[in-house]
Amino acid sequence: MIATVPAPADRLIRPRWATAATFGVNGVLTGSFASRIPALKSTLHLTDSVLGRTLFAIAVGSLASLQVAGWVVRRLGSRHGSGAGATATVAGLAITGATGELAIVAVGLFVYGAGLSLLDVAMNSQAVLVEQSYRRPIMSSFHAMFSAGALLGAAAGAFAAHVHFGQQAHYVLVAAIGFVLLMSAISSMNPTDDVPASTSGPTTTEGPLDADRATPAPTSSPSRRVPRTIMIFGAIAFAGLLSEGASADWSGVHLRDSLHWTESAAARGFVVFQLFMTIGRTIGDRVIAALGPRRTLTSASALAAAGFAVGLATRNGWMFVAGLGTLGLGLSVIVPVVFSAAAAQQGDTGAAIARVSTIGYAGFLVGPPLLGQLAQWSSTGWALAVLPVLCAMSGVLTLVVFPRSTPLAVPASGA
User: Helix, strand, coil shares of the chain as percentages rounded to 5?
Assistant: First the structure.
């Protein structure tokens, strides 16, 4: 019997769907966790400031993990790094749900945050490899899968709250299912971090590319300007990830405590946020190809800042939810663009993403306790007012200092 050799297209499609599934399941875990934060607060009888300090454990775990994530991906490869991150993520979520003791919950959140960061760096490194093999922008489609998963997880959390299914049992159940799905998806990723050959062959372009459009990744060694560029990317990621994380952590609390929605109704706010994040990331690759990274970031930042500011200022629940949707739509493309741009600046994809992630995820480090303390001093509404300010600053930073000729980590397409 003659063994069949997989077609070149299969060698591209299978890792793409495996990576997309990993993003999606990771999103389910994140959405499930975030949607039950109001219930976690009630279960543990926490004030806003104590909740903020408790969520701080996620950020500490994330930052600690990011210090070694690049090394782990280089040492083990992005597939095995994804497996290690996935295992820690589900273990942390299970620990968080298995107890009502605040100290043990904090340990679980630390492990959860550490796993999320390692998984994030590893699966994004795999995604960059797949994107390079396709020779066209597809990074946003992976992040769309994350948002779709988070939407599904948030919707499941809202339903669980509606039928009074316990937050602790919910976390344990989601962790168990997530572990099985993640291990199945990760097993089909590229076994090595070599870029698979494209079936269409290399594409070329004649003449200079638009300076604000996606351009080929540089083949020369990194210049001395790379650290400054990484800092710029990291600052933009900081604003975007703090806003994204704060929306997950505090939007439901604001709807329930300040705008007097029920717990199940409050969870729907995060569902709307994730719905528009998913829509934005689904069309994001086409938007990035049309506008280029610089114009995409400035437009998205302006949309997020203006929409959420209006929704928050009205002090009306439905207008706030509409503002959340606009915020999600604006934030949807920021991290995919920044990660792809950062990966193009360095020969070591994992290290580049880890550096930007370290700065960006510092937003999660300062975000929960900062907003919790601000809410304790004033209200959750005033605390959330930080988000449109950060989005506006991100747009200004992009407009002023984001390199106009910034490439993305994908070869140019002649299409």
Answer: 75, 0, 25
